[in-house]
């Protein structure tokens, strides 16, 4: 009887001691936007409690942090941001929150490209007003898979430094995910290799694909005379038609032309294909077509190759 009691007490003690320990082991991590949060999730697994400041469809460039964000930052042990001027609002937020979190820039160590001069707009955040990046570099480095491998290494190292007990797990998860990224990079290259070289160009209002263009050899040519913050006029469309013909551009990804008649006119007069949506700065929610980084890249590749292949 006594032995049973001892066993019971020992069991109870072990339950008491492991439950809080497990909760304590969860490291509080804040990621600035959805793409980073997905990378952190792949490296940290269940060991981190991940909070994303800017959710699906949000625009980090023009974000205004809320008091709730300050609370999230204050509670975090680790804050992971893109850097390269993407989150210009962040330093003030960290300061005002009084947070003691370590802040790391996931892009540290990549070779940055210079920022484009033009304004910048995306399908998933038509912010209604033109804006330029205030930093000299283009922040959209995640559009190259090789860069994302650098991000993953930085995230792994930051997690291990903040939570040394999890270091082995982070290393194993990162190695696994890096393998998936290598496969993804191969997929992109194989898909683009099937497109005839002279067809590897699109007209696009996206300024977010310089790293993609640089890594994979698809040119993103800005349409002439199309403002990013207003519906394109019939005159602007006439100029685009001229440009497509002159430069023999096979496909058009202009999401700011929302009038289907104008897009049909471009297609009819030039023979160019009208491409679907490209995701640049944000993932979709779980039910969307780009809920993870890998799904986002695959979606974009499919949109590009189906418009450019013949
Ligand atoms: Zn952007």
UniProtKB/TrEMBL annotation:
GO terms for biological process: cell adhesion; metal ion transport. One of its GO terms (cellular component) is cell envelope. InterPro entries: AdhesinB, Bact_metal-bind_prot9, Lipoprotein_PsaA-like, ZnuA-like. This is Zinc/manganese transport system substrate-binding protein. The keyword Plastid does not apply. It comes from the Bacteria. Coiled coil: none annotated. PANTHER family: HIGH-AFFINITY ZINC UPTAKE SYSTEM PROTEIN ZNUA-RELATED, METAL-BINDING PROTEIN HI_0362-RELATED. SUPFAM superfamilies: Helical backbone' metal receptor. It is found in: Cell envelope. One of its GO terms (molecular function) is metal ion binding. The keyword Metal-binding applies. Belongs to the bacterial solute-binding protein 9 family. Keywords: Metal-binding, Signal, Transport. Residues 1-23 form the signal peptide.
